[in-house]
Amino acid sequence: MSRKPRKAVFPVAGLGTRFLPATKAVPKEMLTVVDKPVIQYAVEEAAEAGIDHFVFVTGRGKGAIEDHFDLAYELEATLKARGKTAEIELLKPSRPAAGAASFVRQQEPLGLGHAVWCARDIVGDEPFLLALPDMLIHGASGCFTQMMEVYERHGGNVIAVEEVPHEHVSRYGVVALNEKFDDRTHSITGMVEKPKREDAPSNLIISGRYILQPEIFAKLEILKPGAGGEIQLTDAMIELIAEQDFYSYRFEGTTYDCGDKIGFLSANVALALSRPDIASKFRPVAELLLKQ
Ligand code: UTP
Asked: Domain range spanning residue 211?
């Protein structure tokens, strides 16, 4: 039986240049969607899937993330003294148990693959979850929870994918499929990063959620910089496909790329409209704005 992943890795060391000037002093992962930082959605998704250790790959200027996932001692003491129990409850999902959050520095932003490799000693010889926190996935059941079910059935490595129009494939990592297990799950025979439309093996793109075996670290270790001069995670996965099983899983849910302005704004509107506590007040405001 496959070992169950216990740890999740969150690379948060990128520069966030698409969100300047907001990201000059504030990490882009701390930008808020409605009332929670983007990173917290991914952490809660991993916690819902049974993860009990959260590994953040941070960089300079990312201290706010560390503070966010800590006990805010003075704040909680003040809220307690004022009897604000509902507000104290709101803080709980951002406070992992003592010792359940680790932070490791990626000293230079050398790419996603390099960021993942920086987590190797903390992850150790265990399968792990990897989330690109920019990708906010909204749905009835968490994407990682769905992926864990696939992992329990098949083991190996599981990659979340989603369909995009064929003309958009050249912006993403794209998977090549083989055997079909059900409508959502296939085995993967290959991957290609940012292919030309005519060279793309499918229109299923890699969507920022992975369950990976620890052998990926050895592949990352020997990689040379690829596209954009960065160490690419896709290149390491391509190497590992020759040795291990990879499965694609077309998850149920909607993805918002919060590293991009349109995706970020869409996430705010969509999540506000889905929140029972604010939707009824926000909907007429949004409708009025659209008429202007
Ligand atoms: P992105 O490429 O979307 O992030 O990486 P970025 O480089 O911060 O964004 P822009 O293009 O400059 O606006 C996806 C995720 O991988 C992390 C980022 O923090 C983000 O969560 N990342 C990326 C690292 O941790 N290290 C890197 O070297 C690159």
From this structure: 7-291
User: Residues 236-263: pLDDT tens digits?
Assistant: 999 999 999 999 999 999 999 999 999 9
CA 24 to ligand 1 centroid distance, Å: 14
Q: CA 279, CA 69: separation in Å to the nearest integer?
A: 28
User: How many domains does the chain divide into?
Assistant: 1
> Coil, strand, or helix at residue 104?
strand
What is the distance between the alpha carbons of residues 233 and 226, in angstroms, rounded to a whole number? 10
Looking at residue 71, the DSSP 8-state letter turns out to be: -
The residues near 116 (Cβ < 8 Å, ≥ 6 apart) are: 9, 11, 57, 130, 216, 217, 220, 233
The CATH number of the domain where 133 resides is what?
3.90.550.10
Q: Can you give the pTM of this predicted structure?
A: 0.95
What does the alpha-carbon distance between residue 104 and residue 116 come to, in Å, rounded to a whole number? 10
Ligand 1, atom 3, lies closest to the CA of 259
Least confident interval from 1-10, 97-106, 158-167: 1-10
Which amino acid residue places its CA nearest to atom 18 of ligand 1? Answer: 14
Q: Which of 30, 103, 112 to mutate to test the pocket of ligand 1 (most atoms within 8 A of CB)?
A: 112
Express each pLDDT in 173-225 by its tens digit.
Answer: 999 998 888 999 999 999 998 899 999 999 999 999 999 999 999 999 998 87
Atom of ligand 1 nearest to the CA of 59: 25
What are 11's strand-pairing partners? 57
Residue 185 counted as domain residue: yes
The Cα 225–Cα 237 span in angstroms is: 14
